[in-house]
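Quick one, probably user error.
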């Protein structure tokens, strides 16, 4: 290879070769090409270059961190706490986000027309429940004053009298002494805190002794604590209870006429009725 050829190759490498017509016929054909077609070439080139630059600029902008904070999604009216953003990152302006703060007092609730709601000054205070009114079984709680009514004898209540427990008729016309005798303080069971003991106005407890339900003062013995503890079992009728002896399981307070005893459970309708009690508001 000659030095002249080497220089020619170097020049070819550095400067790309121009595409020139190979023959005179090709040159003449280019000259005969319509002017309009030749004039469109620069426009097409410019449009292509512009498209490439625009695409690159858009990609660069999306890759940069946003300078402005993005609004949080707005919750759909039917979607609870879920937010909604459409596929283009736009939040629907027609959907209003629900309030996150719930009313904490009556004044924060939606207003009511004055004509349909009496004023606070005209609202009467809530009257206390009348004595002897039935309560839910859940109202039998330690520390409360309660009366016990025979479930199938609405006017007959358990009372303490002369060391024995029995049923007595109690009404609004009854004397204060009778009303107080039919009222007990519910306490946690002396032998089992999951059960109950019933304390009379004089401090005596309902307890069984020789199978009879009595009303005696606590002598501090373990036997007394067990005898004076009764466990609540759900009655067969709504809002009624059975009272099972803590230390004689399977034995329940049972009525024999107006007297209260503990008797072994019998699966008879009559026994269920005679062993069911209703918890009521206190008489005394």
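Nope, works fine. Designed sequence:
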């Amino acid at each position: 290879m000659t030095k002249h050829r080497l220089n020619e190759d170097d020049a070819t490498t550095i400067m790309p070769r121009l595409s020139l017509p190979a023959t005179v016929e090709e040159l003449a054909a280019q000259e005969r090409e319509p002017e309009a077609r030749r004039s469109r070439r620069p426009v097409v080139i410019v449009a292509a270059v512009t498209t490439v630059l625009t695409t690159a600029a858009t990609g660069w902008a999306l890759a940069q961190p946003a300078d402005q904070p993005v609004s949080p999604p707005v919750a759909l009216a039917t979607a609870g706490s879920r937010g909604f953003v459409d596929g283009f990152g736009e939040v629907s302006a027609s959907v209003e986000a629900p309030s996150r703060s719930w009313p904490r007092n009556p004044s924060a609730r939606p207003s009511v027309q004055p004509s349909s709601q009496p004023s606070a000054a005209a609202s009467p205070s809530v009257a206390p429940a009348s004595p002897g009114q039935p309560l839910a079984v859940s109202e039998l709680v330690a520390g409360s004053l309660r009366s016990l009514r025979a479930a199938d004898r609405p006017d007959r209540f358990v009372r303490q009298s002369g060391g024995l427990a029995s049923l007595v008729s109690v009404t609004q016309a009854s004397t204060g002494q009778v009303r107080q005798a039919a009222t007990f303080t519910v306490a946690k069971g002396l032998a089992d805190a999951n059960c109950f003991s019933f304390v009379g106005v004089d401090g005596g407890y309902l307890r069984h002794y020789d199978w009879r339900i009595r009303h005696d003062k606590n002598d501090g013995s373990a036997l007394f604590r067990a005898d004076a503890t009764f466990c609540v079992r759900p009655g067969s009728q709504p809002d009624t209870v059975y009272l099972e002896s803590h230390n004689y399981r399977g034995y329940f307070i049972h009525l024999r006429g107006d007297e209260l005893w503990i008797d072994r459970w019998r699966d008879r309708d009559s026994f269920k009725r005679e062993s069911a009690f209703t918890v009521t508001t206190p008489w005394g």
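The longest helix spans residues 35-63.
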